[in-house]
Fold this protein.
Amino acid sequence: MARARARPSFTFGDSAPRLRGWNVQPVLAPTSRRGEIHTAKPHNGCLPTCSGLVRPVLTIASGNPNKVAEIVSMLGPLALEVRRQPDDLDVEETGATYLENARLKAVAAARRTGYWSLADDSGLEVDALGGAPGLFTARLAPTDSEKIQRLLEALEGDPYRSACFRSAMVLCSPEGQCLEEAEGVCWGELLKAPAFSGGGIESLFWVREANCSYGELNGSQLARLGSRGKAARALAPRLRERLGLNR
């Protein structure tokens, strides 16, 4: 009888390095009429405007401009100022769940800036691998091609390829209190080869509702079907209520 081939391990021990550091852009302080830089102190997470009104400020706990723009688009029209996190903010993701990691990032951004903050955390969960890589999706391998290769090797010969992308999103007050949370899940399956070349693991994840891979979803589809989009849409009404944007 032929011996069963050992499945590659997806176990990450306590000694595995944690995800650290976001390469972020600086946040500019408001300028006065003379052009000099000054620091405006937020009041209840808002900044004064030239007309004397206050404008809510929301910090997205990410330094990736594409991710920030994607989240803002998913939240829908908002009458506030959106900023990326400060460039020297370094948060160690030590949480045991996506929600815990999102809370860590949101609290750190709020306490540093004094503004409302929003953070998310996501991962790929493969049923045949017991939910792995999960929290360790981002560091499954050094490169996108290696991540794809490792997943394909782990599932070689396995007919059960169901999986999901899972996201958690947290809204934090300027005082550093997590007030609202939401989660989103996008169900699908892993292909036997990427749907297109040069992509990440999103090119390997097939979304039946859209009849394309996750990496081929457009902005509207990501907001409607994507895990981050579902979390953002669930959180958006509560964010507007908390920031007084419905008045």
